[in-house]
């Protein structure tokens, strides 16, 4: 590293430190950056005119350009940080909205499940009630049937003809007595 290069590096660091200090001074004095920069540049120009800072005129302009570039870069960094913060807030809002929607959907699912459970329970209660009514009707019919048999009236099931005693089948070659034939024809006609 040459002596000239080393001086330039030190000078660059000192200038940036000076820029930071100047900016803090602007803020403490209640000045905007632009106004403070104008005052600062006026001071640099005054010192240059008096020959206290630099030997060559283009060094003043290099210092001004460096200052402007530094301030622009810093503003870009701050703008990027603000944009990142805004995006983070938007992401948080979107996430909160998604969580809220998910909770609402879960509530709706629970509500639908409760409604379905209630409908199933009501259907089961109706079926049980109907079964009880049918059982009562059957019990009542059974009770009604018992008094009729005691009174001498046979219930409908008993009114049906009882199966006749089994007779031995008649062969076609055997003659059928006429009395049996007449009884069979009467039974068939009735």
Keywords for this entry:
mainly alpha; 190 residues
Please describe what this structure looks like.
- This protein is mainly alpha-helical.
- The protein has a domain at 3-79.
- The mean pLDDT is 75.
- The chain is built from five helices and no strands.
- α1 crosses α2 (33-50).
- The longest helix has 94 residues, at 57-150.
Write the layout of secondary structure elements.
Blueprint (H helix, E strand, L loop, with lengths): L2 H26 L4 H18 L6 H94 L5 H4 L18 H12 L1
Q: What form results from the Cα inertia axes? A: rod-shaped
Number of helices: 5
Oligomer type: single chain
User: How would you sum up the major sheet?
Assistant: none
Low confidence ranges = none
Binned strand content? under 5%
Summed over residues and divided by their number, the pLDDT gives a mean of 75
Order of helices and strands: HHHHH
Radius of gyration: 57 Å
Task: Please tally the β strands and state the result.
Answer: 0
| End-to-end C-alpha gap | 138 Å
Assign the structural class, choosing from mainly alpha, mainly beta, alpha/beta, alpha+beta, or little secondary structure.
mainly alpha
Percent helix: over 70%
